[in-house]
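Hey, resending since the last one bounced:
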Amino acid sequence: MQLCATKASFAMMFACQRAWWRRSGAYLAVRPEVDTPYVFLTRRPPYRPLQPSGVSTIWRRLAKGAGVKGRHNMHAVRHRFAAQLARSGANMAYIQEALGHEDMATTRLYVRVSPDRLAELVEGVSLPD
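The structure tokens again:
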């Protein structure tokens, strides 16, 4: 099942959200019954796959309505997604795949080293006497 009509890396960002919706049943309970492999559809018939611009518009409106400050574009979401994967201990190769990057150097731009986290890791290393 595809999430939206974009490249795979964009769709993978929403895999976690889709899993939550499936567990809660919130979205799929109101999703129109149409014969399409896409999960996210336009609100009105004819139901088409939701495009990135539509996702961005919805995202900005939700963030603004919730009083969230900061960047609200989908590129910022990709950065946060990559950072969260890294914080949860995901291997860089998995993060690279999830973002759809061919070059690991590009993925490294998304996952920055937190000085606090680096300090924690260094403090946890025991050196031989």
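Confidence is low (pLDDT under 50) at residues 1-10.

Sorry for the duplicate.
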